[in-house]
Amino acid sequence: MENILSFVSEHKEAIYFILLAIFVGVEVIEKVPTILHTPLMSGANAIHGVVIIGAIIVMLDTETDNILSLILGFIAVVLGTLNVVGGFVVTDRMLEMFKKK
């Protein structure tokens, strides 16, 4: 129990941030009509930039001899980048459908 309390006290700001993000996300998503769900989800893939930044921060704090963490961080950066680019591509293609010819 002491470990849990010490973890919570050390990471208070991160826990508050995650809880706030959850509440804001739920409020935003529940007000979206069903017809807009797919375009918003393709745009939300671009939000995975947070994954890229987090992976870079983890890689910067990792010691150079910890190869496993560096490899996992690199994989996270690559997959996050692919998700961001894919989100923009899908959003761009969907927006092209609504343009007048």
Largest sheet: none
Helical stretch count? Answer: 5
Shape summary: flat
Helix content: over 70%
Question: How is this structure best described in words?
Answer:
With 101 residues, the chain is an all-alpha fold. The chain has helices at 2-10, 12-30, 37-44, 49-61, 67-97. It is built from five helices and no strands. The mean pLDDT is 82.
What is the strand and helix layout of this fold?
Layout: H1 2-10, H2 12-30, H3 37-44, H4 49-61, H5 67-97
Helix pairs in contact: 3-5, 4-5
Brief descriptors of the model:
single chain; 79% helix; flat; 101 residues; 2 domains; mainly alpha
Précis, in short:
This protein is mainly α and 101 residues long. Helix content is 79%, strand content 0%.
